[in-house]
Amino acid sequence: MGANLLIFAGSLLLPLSQHDTTDHSERPSHGFGYERLSDALAYNRVQGLSVGLGYRITLPGTSSTGMATIRYGLSDERVTGRLSIVRELRRGYVRLSGYSDVADVDPMSQGRTISNTLNALFAGHDNADYSLSRGASLTWETPLAPALTLELSAGLDRRSSITRTARSAVNDFLGGTGVFPANPPIREGTFGSTSVRLRRPGRGGWMVTLDAIGGAGTTIGRLYGGLRRSIGRRPMLGLHLKAGTATEPGLPQTLFRLGGLNTVRGFEYGTRQGPAFWSVQAELTLLPGRIRPVLFADAGQAGRTVDLFSSTALLGGGAGLELLRGLIRLDLSRPISPHAAGKLRFDLVLREIW
């Protein structure tokens, strides 16, 4: 049933995503639409399969657009949603949002994406931790130069722990267990946040973020980012570096996670956590074309800032097969750290670039 719903939603989303690339002046004043594709259909360990309905309307006499989304989780039977007003500026935009929604805890994870939905549904791997957030945020984004953007944001919300309620019946049918690890609890309370981000998207891009989170009697500052580089063409070596550090003591929701598709493959997401981390992923694409074999190796550490580099490193690696020129990828990975326990892992990845 989940797979059929996924295919059906994909057929609905295709014209929507194509419509979003047209000139704003040519758009109708109202109609169905989504801020992100995962608002229409998503799958994770805290809600299971969730389906959503989005509607957009151009506010009369303004250059602003209202976006409303309501979603329902089939496993937790929870209704979530978001209401946003987006004002197009001469350079960039401003977005004001109010929400009661499931949010990613880890800023380096990709939980709210179609790629993570596919991987969780079919492979039984959810590469994110989640909380329930109710509040509001304000975001301003503007280009500073070609392919370089500045984003400023601030928010205030009530954050609560949320438990795992889902089991992947599709993964169970395909020979896996279908059982996800528990979603870890967070420090609950009302928190204010602010962030500054510089971003250059693409395979040769980078991102750096400075943020601060205050509430529950403490304030935490964090600095983190990532860098992508490609060397050569046939074969091609790709490098993806990530690192971050935070003030201590931290909160459970402000710790960086190590393990999983985004940092060290071969290990379960969140195998290690700490206020500081680094990871490097190296990939060797052997052949050009629509079907491309790939070899990869990852390494990383997570822990307290003062003893980060003396902590035990995680090492993982494996092989993958890219289909349709890298749009879809099948990965097999396992731990290769000395004395590391683990088993062969399969991941289904839809390539997405931040």
Task: Describe this entry's structure for a reader.
- There is one protein chain.
- The protein has a 17-stranded antiparallel β-sheet that branches. A two-stranded antiparallel sheet has the order 13-14.
- The protein has helices at residues 2-19, 114-123, 169-173, and strands at 30-32, 41-44, 48-58, 64-73, 79-88, 93-104, 130-145, 148-160, 189-200, 206-215, 218-231, 236-246, 256-258, 272-274, 276-285, 292-303, 314-323, 328-335, 345-350.
- The longest helix is centred in the first third of the chain and has 18 residues, at 2-19.
- Helix content is 9%, strand content 50%.
- The protein has two domains: 1-198, no CATH class; 201-354, Porin (Beta Barrel).
- Residues 1-25 have low confidence and may be disordered.
- It starts with a helix and ends with a strand.
- With 354 residues, it is mainly β.
- The chain is built from three helices and 19 strands.
Rg, Å, rounded = 20 Å
C-alpha geometry: globular
Which stretches of 5+ consecutive residues score pLDDT under 50? Answer: 1-25
The total strand number stands at 19
Number of domains: 2
Helix content percent band: under 10%
Q: List the secondary-structure elements in sequence, H or E.
A: HEEEEEEHEEHEEEEEEEEEEE
